[in-house]
Design goal:
The radius of gyration is 19 Å and the shape is elongated. It is an all-alpha fold and 162 residues long. The protein is built from seven helices and no strands.
């Protein structure tokens, strides 16, 4: 396993990380399955489901307010994961185009993935303002991985052209 992150002949794992992060953001973090099970789903306009049906579900005792709050956090984590995925994908495409070593690309993908999983965990579980800054730290850390990737890519491209 470590040869994927150290060997000069390591295969590029970016496509697999991309598929994994897509599944994580679009399926695992989605509220769709929970909302369908709770009969709180309206496929015509699903982004409004929690606002439209959430309060009534709490009042009817189908779910607790804490569960509704957690669903709102899950929806926010889902949307944020989808919003950030293109930035990661573009950064890694630049890395590949710039000719960064596959082991370097794999390390960057692994770091970003671990950070995003931690970010999602923090969003789903943290309920206090003070602790929520851990989530913000994770969000920035994921972006910094992308910034570093663009910088490394730019340096590699510049070195090859001068």
């Amino acid at each position: 396993m470590s040869s994927y992150f150290t060997s000069p002949t390591a295969p590029n794992l970016f496509p697999y990380f991309s598929i994994g992060l897509f599944g994580f953001s679009h399926a695992f973090l989605s509220t769709r399955f929970v909302k369908v099970a709770l009969k709180m789903d309206n496929n015509v306009c699903p982004r409004l489901d929690l606002d439209k049906y959430g309060k009534a579900a709490v009042e009817k005792g189908k779910i607790t307010q804490a569960q509704l709050d957690q669903l709102h956090r899950r929806q926010a984590a889902h949307e944020n994961a989808i919003e950030n995925l293109p930035y990661f994908l573009v950064a890694m495409v630049f890395a590949h185009h710039a000719g960064l070593p596959n082991a370097t690309i794999n390390k960057l993908c692994l770091a970003y993935s671990i950070i995003r999983v931690f970010y999602a965990w923090a969003y789903l579980t943290i309920t206090t303002r003070e602790a929520s800054f851990l989530r913000s730290l994770a969000w920035w850390s994921g972006n910094i991985v992308c910034f570093m990737t663009f910088i490394k890519s730019g340096r590699a491209l510049s070195a090859g052209r001068w």
